[in-house]
């Protein structure tokens, strides 16, 4: 199953796959929704998906991974996406990869058993914890960016990931999480 | 059992309906229907209380099946009844549900002596204030506007389209509280309090979802139609 909206890339990857020794039957979809119309998700021996179809959303990624939890899911990266998305695939193809690199990746994961389980890791990374700590003490995105020497854009992206991992969206709820987990003292919490 | 997805019809006996879906007792209360319904059917009761059968069936069906498909063909009198129903629901949330949850959260916070529980209490109180403001806005601005539009056919410099924007993240904070209490905050011995709070939150959530569905998917589009007719 290939989930890729761009015709050029789609044709390209299928030409590469067809050049392989035991080429398989390919199915195509522009979007994840379309892919699901094929019904049974365990029909496919490999799923190659362009993260662009996930709208940069961890939630969409998690949905996809749990739907195809018995298949290896490979990223097909045509652009720079949030590393958090591509890191969760079994492997990644980049459109700048050489022909043989691509065929190697595909044959390695084709029909192979998927990793023990595509269990999604919801623990916060160290950087996310740094962001959460500052957020919980009432700092603005800009202040957090300055203090951690990262861009405001990166702060926002960390924040999104924190929310999607913890399943809470409001700042107040994130503060409560931080307090309950000893990330900040109550004294450090200012109104 | 298994009749859950079946559409409720006007010929069903009211008592039978309530035995299969006891949560509808609350809906009856909001319509001002008194219990002791004897052998009467839904249609009989609606006629007796001068309630539009169409409105009643839409509300009960949506309450038992959130994906229930209804026709958007309510007339001006129906819309008035929908507004009345929604106003009653607001009072129920504000006068009964929230005070009870707030009382229990306060007890839980006192009992646990944990800073995060005090923050949960504050978070919920702030959430409640937001919801109150939202309800006040509907009760004092949106609903009078709609009633005035129907009775005086007067379209002012206001439209329900403005109202749609007001109408978003009430659900989100509720989800946050549930998530915190179920997943993130270790339970000491606040035993039955947390359970009571959670049950109340889940009930409130279900009720609010149907409530906003009626507002967003029925009331607003229907009033928009009225606005257009008024301009034509």
Description:
With 191 residues, chain A is an alpha/beta fold. Chain A is 45% helix and 9% strand. Chain A contains 9 helices and 5 strands, in the order βαβαβαβαβααααα. Chain B folds into 2 domains: 2-64, SP0561-like; 76-231. Chain B starts with 13 loop residues before the first helix and ends with a helix. Chain B has 232 residues and is an all-alpha fold. In chain B, 74% of the residues lie in helices and 0% in strands. The A-B interface holds A 166-170, 172-173, 175-177, 179-181, 186, 189 and B 114-116, 119-120, 122-123, 126, 172-173, 175-177, 179-180, 183-186.
**Content of β-strand of chain A:** 5-15%
Instruction: Please report the distance between the alpha carbons of the first and last residues of chain A.
Output: 51 Å
Q: Report the CATH C-level class of the largest domain in chain A.
A: Alpha Beta
The whole-number mean of residue pLDDT values of chain A reads: 83
CATH superfamily of the largest domain in chain A: Response regulator
Question: What is the terminal-to-terminal distance of chain B?
Answer: 49 Å
The CATH topology of the largest domain in chain A corresponds to Rossmann fold
H/E element order of chain B:
HHHHHHHHH
What kind of sheet is the major sheet of chain B? none
The CATH architecture name of the largest domain in chain A reads 3-Layer(aba) Sandwich
Low-confidence stretches of chain B: none
